[in-house]
Amino acid sequence: MRSVKVSVVIPAFNAGRWVARAIDSVLAQDWPNVEVIVVNDGSTDNTDEVCRSYGERIRYVRQENAGVSAARNRGIELAEGQLIAFLDADDQFLPSMVSTLVRALENFPEAGAASGAHFLRTGDSLVRVPPEGRVLPPGVKIGVVHDFFRVYAKWSIAWTGSVLVKKEVFDKVGLFRPDLRLGEDIEMWSRIAGRFPWVFVDEPVAVYNRNPESSVTMRSRLSFDFSFIYDEDEMRKQVREELWVGYRVFRREQILMRCRYLLKYGATGEVRAALRRISPAPPTFEWLMINVLSFFPPWMAKTVAYSVINLKRIKRRLLR
User: Fold this and answer.
1) 166-196 residue pLDDT tens
2) Closest Cα partner for 73 from 165, 194, 190, 193?
């Protein structure tokens, strides 16, 4: 398996401040056969200069700005490896990322993709996601996640920088959707997990550096677009029947999470529209609370939402 070639696709948009760190983390992998593909998505800063300084150590292409999905798709099309990983230009791999996930796919050849845990860095804070021992049975470090969507609803087990996919899988499920400006990665993992077994490794393989702005595309922080979440008809086309119950849980949690975010901005009308996408039967406590808040005046909904968030922060600090 050490002869297996792995292609790592790095889309970069105005990422001159960070892209060298991302590239270096891939070049430092302990796997001997790794290809680095950087797709400059129409940057206007010094991204081009930084990438060209690596010479033949990386494959570098530049395109007109078309968004992160188009950049990743360009990388997939150029990739020579049998396995493909993705890394945003402001994030980084840990040295054993590739070798860990290659061996995971070797142990479970029926799987279409594998992922590991990651560290979330916010300022000086570094948090492991998900916490150790929460996804697989006690004592198990690697295994197939049988109820993928129910687990994904609770724990972030498929963050973009911690995923390795068999290239042949894209021939069957298609490429990233360029029409999506939000959740394009979540939609892709849903397509893959909907058709293939998914392997999880309970050890960190990458670092997600949470920056105030995206390194790939400048998005509005406030978006009402839920197109990346399948409705019932789409779910039945994309997801195996045995995963439908779990997907409905996943869909509900994704929408509720974004409703909480929308309430912070007083977007009560958008919250009511979003809640209509999920069934209230049986209604959860959170669904009921969000539904009630969505009928408050916007300023009041914002005040309550921020109060709840602050209380949760205080609780987390006390429990440390």
Assistant:
1) 999 999 999 999 999 889 999 999 999 999 9
2) 165
3-state secondary structure of 315: helix
Alpha-carbon span 7 to 78, nearest angstrom: 9
Q: Domain ranges in the chain?
A: 6-209, 232-319
Which residues contact residue 247 at a Cβ distance below 8 angstroms, ignoring those fewer than 6 apart? 149, 190, 194, 230, 235, 239
In this structure, are residues 168 and 195 in contact, taking their beta carbons and an 8 Å threshold?
A: no
Q: How many CB atoms lie within 10 A of CB 92?
A: 23
Task: Give me the helices (H) in 28-164, please.
Answer: 47-52, 68-78, 97-107, 148-154
How far apart are the C-alpha atoms of 316 and 295, rounded to whole Å? 29
> 3-state class of 142 per DSSP?
strand
Three-state secondary-structure class, residue 52: helix
Tens of pLDDT, residue by residue over 72-120, are 999 999 999 999 999 999 999 999 999 999 999 999 999 999 999 999 9
The three-class DSSP label of residue 240 is coil
Structural contact between residues 63 and 39, judged by C-beta atoms closer than 8 angstroms: yes
Mean pLDDT of all residues in 238-254 = 95
| CATH H-level, domain 6-209: superfamily | Spore Coat Polysaccharide Biosynthesis Protein SpsA; Chain A (3.90.550.10)
The verdict on pTM exceeding 0.85 is yes
